[in-house]
Automatic annotation (TrEMBL):
<feature type="domain" description="Ketoreductase">
    <location>
        <begin position="5"/>
        <end position="182"/>
    </location>
</feature>
<keyword id="KW-0560">Oxidoreductase</keyword>
<dbReference type="InterPro" id="IPR002347">
    <property type="entry name" value="SDR_fam"/>
</dbReference>
<dbReference type="InterPro" id="IPR051122">
    <property type="entry name" value="SDR_DHRS6-like"/>
</dbReference>
<dbReference type="GO" id="GO:0016491">
    <property type="term" value="F:oxidoreductase activity"/>
</dbReference>
<dbReference type="InterPro" id="IPR020904">
    <property type="entry name" value="Sc_DH/Rdtase_CS"/>
</dbReference>
<protein>
    <submittedName>
        <fullName>3-oxoacyl-ACP reductase</fullName>
    </submittedName>
</protein>
<comment type="similarity">
    <text>Belongs to the short-chain dehydrogenases/reductases (SDR) family.</text>
</comment>
<dbReference type="InterPro" id="IPR036291">
    <property type="entry name" value="NAD(P)-bd_dom_sf"/>
</dbReference>
<dbReference type="Pfam" id="PF13561">
    <property type="entry name" value="adh_short_C2"/>
</dbReference>
<dbReference type="InterPro" id="IPR057326">
    <property type="entry name" value="KR_dom"/>
</dbReference>
Length: 266
């Protein structure tokens, strides 16, 4: 009989992390739900069960207690899904030292300290790490200097972990979503909604105008990509960056003017 896998998810209270929790719960995985706010974690746990660990994944001191509880409750760990993240708004001259530090802490430090703490357990189980990046890991949006820098660095972390721990049986991969219907993305739509008098769905349609699939992802779609990377079906993949953005990153930006010209003539 195959032993149930134990899956730890940071940022498990909302968005992609919550979708991952619900998906793995359907597969009877044993869950560890990590986040800074208890209430969202408890809401997810009502649907999924699992061990709730409240704390900041970007704080190294937090992880000693977390790992001790995981060992006591489950005795093993098979998958780490590093979904915790945050903002990093502003151009370089608009970014204060505190905003810069917070962008790196929430988007990069959270993944690094999560992985560092979990690696001994993952080596014992020949487990998997999946890091949640962004298309901001590949290209720069306007005035998101901290976020873009941190998400680019996350791919360096992905490759370094894969290089060092592949010989120990641990696979590490990254997923780079585009727009996803999450509370954080909803908040990013507010300036467009205010500027153009649009509803939330209309704002999402606007930001997806030049996305080949013409829509944002649902969190469950990104969760399925994470599940694939952490499964035996991806057994030869490590250090990979899987882009799940509806085709955003394949668009040749300098030719968009021609596409818009064609649209106007239709």
């Amino acid at each position: 009989m195959t032993e149930r896998r134990t899956v730890l998810i940071t940022g498990a209270g909302t968005g992609i992390g919550a979708a991952c929790a619900r998906m793995y719960a359907e597969e009877d995985a044993r869950l560890v739900l990590v986040g800074r706010r208890r209430e969202p974690l408890e809401q997810v746990a009502r649907d999924t069960g699992g061990l709730i660990l409240v704390g900041d994944a970007a704080c190294p001191d937090t992880w000693d207690g977390f790992i001790r509880q995981i060992r006591e409750h489950y005795g093993r760990l098979d998958v780490l899904l590093a979904c915790a993240g945050g903002h990093g708004l502003g151009s370089a001259t608009q970014t204060s030292p505190a905003t810069w530090a917070d962008a790196l802490r929430s988007n990069l430090d959270s993944a690094f300290y999560s992985a560092r703490a979990c690696l001994p357990l993952l080596q014992a189980s020949a487990g998997n790490i999946v890091l949640i990046g962004s298309i901001a890991s590949l290209a720069a949006g306007p005035e998101v200097c901290g976020y873009t820098t941190a998400k680019h660095a996350l791919l360096g972390l992905n490759r370094s972990l894969a290089r060092d721990y592949g010989p120990h049986g641990v696979r590490v991969n990254a997923v780079c979503p585009g727009w996803v219907h999450t509370p954080m993305a909803d908040a990013e739509m507010l300036p467009l909604m205010d500027a153009y008098g649009e509803t939330l769905p209309q704002a999402y349609a606007r930001v997806c105008t030049d996305v080949p699939l013409r829509r944002a992802a649902q969190p469950e779609e990104i969760a399925k990509v994470c599940r694939f990377l952490a499964s035996g079906d991806a057994s030869i993949m490590t250090g990979a960056t899987v882009v799940a953005d509806g085709g955003s990153s394949i668009v040749d930006v300098p030719t968009l003017a021609f596409a818009h010209l064609e649209t106007r003539h239709e």
